[in-house]
């Protein structure tokens, strides 16, 4: 038995016994492994939110950690169960785009279609692959079983078609991609891209009906009931309200636009910062199949 680490991320919540069932299966195979909950509060069937939360957490774990993620509206359908091996980690879950961002941040070595039924539980439910397929695979991986033993190699896999920020004239257009439990509006605009665009010019940040003219260093600089802009711990621009809720105050939701305007008349809010070229990112445009609901 190995003292491996296995993380779990799902949309199951904690009211029902689904998460405990998965843990029971894993511990039955390897009682010495360490189980860590990333979160079980992903919005139901929200693959994009699951992908973002996983991407924000996975790299803080030791190399060799096994990440099991189950947000699986297509459970029991045509989507494949997969094992994705990257340079430093192993990911187990449905092939529905859930690993899109993690795969971009840690080089993919191979992807395996999970087909060896001897590894799975004997009775496989069409509504709970998290317990019957993904948990036993993770348990055996934690015991040192080679990823190649679980099935056939895949040459392609599903990735979410996520929008990237776009420059149009003197505007940088992004969008709200995540809203955390504090109501912070997290955007897809990275720090490097923001400063590459504005350089040392004055700027305006428009979110909902609110206009913000400066960046704060942290939440502590904000005023109560006054929305502010800052870069969060993951390096993305976010709109927040100190001791408040930006989502409720601005009445916005995920997917709504964030606009940065540069080259406006100078104001006292002009900032100066060093210029850095943003990293070039690779963009793919796979399609995400529509699937029936299910627990995973």
Properties at a glance:
2 domains, 296 residues, Elongation Factor Tu (Ef-tu), domain 3, Rossmann fold, 27% strand, eight-stranded antiparallel beta sheet, single chain
Description:
With about 300 residues, the protein is an alpha+beta fold. The protein folds into two domains: about 5-155, S-adenosyl-l-methionine hydroxide adenosyltransferase, N-terminal (Rossmann fold, 3-Layer(aba) Sandwich), CATH 3.40.50; about 165-260, Bacterial fluorinating enzyme like (Elongation Factor Tu (Ef-tu), domain 3). Helix content is about 20%, strand content about 25%. The chain is built from six helices and 15 strands. It has helices at about 20-30, 45-55, 100-105, 130-140, 190-200, 245-250; strands spanning about 5-10, 35-40, 65-70, 80-85, 90-95, 110-115, 150-155, 165-170, 170-180, 185-190, 205, 210, 230, 235-240, 255-260. The strands form two sheets. Strands 8, 9, 10, 11, 12, 13, 14 and 15 form an eight-stranded antiparallel β-sheet that branches. The protein has a seven-stranded mixed β-sheet with strand order 2-1-3-5-4-6-7, sandwiched between helices. It is elongated, with a radius of gyration of 21 Å.
């Amino acid at each position: 038995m190995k003292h491996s680490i296995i993380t779990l991320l799902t949309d199951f919540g904690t009211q029902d016994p689904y998460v405990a069932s998965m843990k029971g299966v894993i511990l039955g195979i390897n009682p010495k492994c360490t189980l860590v909950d990333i979160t079980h509060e992903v919005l139901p069937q929200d693959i994009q939110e699951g992908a973002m939360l996983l991407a924000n957490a996975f790299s803080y774990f030791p190399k060799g950690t096994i990440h099991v993620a189950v947000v699986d509206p297509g459970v029991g359908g045509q989507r494949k169960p997969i094992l994705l091996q990257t340079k430093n980690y192993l990911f187990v879950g449905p092939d529905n785009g859930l690993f899109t961002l993690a795969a971009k941040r840690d080089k993919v070595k191979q992807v395996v279609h999970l087909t060896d039924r001897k590894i799975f539980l004997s009775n496989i439910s069409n509504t709970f692959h998290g317990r019957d397929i993904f948990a036993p695979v993770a348990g055996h991986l934690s015991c040192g079983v080679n990823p190649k033993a679980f099935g056939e190699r895949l040459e392609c896999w599903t990735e979410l078609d996520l929008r990237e920020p776009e420059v149009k004239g003197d505007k940088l257009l992004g969008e709200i991609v995540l809203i955390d439990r504090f109501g912070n509006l997290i955007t897809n605009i990275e720090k490097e891209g923001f400063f590459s665009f504005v350089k040392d010019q004055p700027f305006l940040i428009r979110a909902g009906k609110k206009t913000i003219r400066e960046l704060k260093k942290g939440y502590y600089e904000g005023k109560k009931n006054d929305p502010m802009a800052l870069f969060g711990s993951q390096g993305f621009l976010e709109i927040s309200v100190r001791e408040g809720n930006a989502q409720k105050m601005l009445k916005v939701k995920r997917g709504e636009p964030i606009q940065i305007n540069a080259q406006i008349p100078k104001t006292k809010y002009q900032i100066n910062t060093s210029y850095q070229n943003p990293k070039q990112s690779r963009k793919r445009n796979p399609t995400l199949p529509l699937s029936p609901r299910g627990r995973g």
